Amino acid sequence: MALLVMKFGGSSVSDAEAMRRVAGRVVSSHQAGNQVAVVVSAMGDTTDELLDLAAQVSPGVPPQREMDMLLSAGERISMALLAMAIEKLGVPAKSFTGAQAGMRTDTAHGRARLLDVQPARVRLALDEGRVAIVAGFQGISTDDDITTLGRGGSDTTAVALAAALDADVCEIYTDVDGLYTADPRIVPSARPVTRLTIEETLEMAAHGAKILHLRAVEYARRFHVPLHVRSSFSDKEGTWILVGRPLTEDTMEEPIISGIAHDRSLGKVTAVGIPDRPGAAAAVVGAVSRAGVSVDMIVQNVSTSDAATSDISFTIPETDGQTTVAAVRGLQAEMGFSDVLYTSHVGKLSLVGAGMRSNPSVAARLFSALAEAGVNIEMISTSEIRISVICDQADLEAGVRAVHTAFDLDAEAEAVVYGGTGR
Ligand code: ADP
Ligand code: ASP
Ligand code: MG
Fold this sequence. Notes:
Elements: E1 3-8, H1 16-31, E2 35-40, H2 46-57, H3 64-88, E3 93-96, E4 103-105, E5 114-117, H4 120-127, E6 131-135, E7 138-141, E8 146-148, H5 154-165, E9 169-174, E10 195-197, H6 198-206, H7 214-223, E11 227-231, E12 239-242, E13 256-275, H8 280-290, E14 298-302, E15 309-317, H9 321-335, E16 339-354, H10 360-372, E17 379-383, E18 386-392, H11 396-406
Parallel strand pairs: 1-2, 1-9, 2-6, 3-6, 4-7, 9-11, 10-12
Antiparallel strand pairs: 4-5, 7-8, 11-12, 13-15, 13-16, 14-15, 16-18, 17-18
The structure holds adenosine-5'-diphosphate, aspartic acid (ASP) and magnesium ion.
The site of aspartic acid has 12 residues, from loops.
């Protein structure tokens, strides 16, 4: 008997009919002789709607504790409805909030991190022959307050539950037929990927492929949880995410492109005219990280304002724009730099695959594809398995399509997007 964790995202449970369809799928897995724990997200756009409501009653920054109370309600609605729908099909089911499922987190409301997972009640329900349903995206803090794990966090709940239960596989059911070489919403000719290593998946997720929450992939790597990403709307096989890929002779030294990720939610901050001395970058990046913002790409070069000084530019999540600018401005007088500039609507395109750095032709091909598409590159960074460029957000989609074609990734068949908004 296998133990499965099946996770269903918001677009898979968007209304009562979808909920019944998912219940049918869960029941089939259960009847096939598996123990089944399910993780559900809030229905459709519920989380966004709750955020809108909060903004109406409390413009600005609402109290974070109450925000988490509010947002966690979305997943509770789903878990109870799904339990009812499964019971209706004759299989016993029981739902659990994140707290009841033993998801202990730190106290960082809105972006809490899991500290400990003790799903004793879930295990008991499974041993009683029930389907256990756990509300995704939430936990209970060390102060006994309800927390949420950050947008897209239900994937992380699912992987953490799979690890704690020592499940055979964590199945992520979504609104597309698995992972593709690019987001099928913007590249209809994207090619389905049947297998991907966890490292490549990590790069895709870290650079904007929102099909998997980055922390879920990190967790899966750390705890060796096999991931299977597939559609809840079809029976296509989807994508298996593996710990290592066997190299065959013909792929040994060739670059292997796994896909193109894009991120349209970035902002760029530049500290202009920083006196050139050791420790300048550390001071700027240190102040930003103390403000709780993670810095992505960083570039330092000779200042446009004065040759004896340098500029440091870096990208951050757009939602952290104001916090970051305030943190950098706080250093301005002490460090003596001339200005802080901020650009919102910055986009990032990342080409991910093995053998990037050792094959210089890959970068050349990428840059010329972007040039032909009229996309101006503002920043570049490379790693062993990725090349990323920063550009204007308005050029991003055209850039992704051009690069996809330039690397011969286009498939003949059009990818199917079954639901959701892609937001
Ligand atoms: P869920 O509600 O199931 O959690 P998400 O909206 O979070 O679903 O993630 C699924 C979406 O991820 C897809 O609809 C697709 O638009 C997007 N996506 C981005 N990059 C990729 C990719 N490389 N392959 C497949 N989907 C991708
Ligand atoms: N409902 C949450 C969100 O919309 C969590 C999730 O769907 O994973 O971000
Ligand atoms: Mg998601």
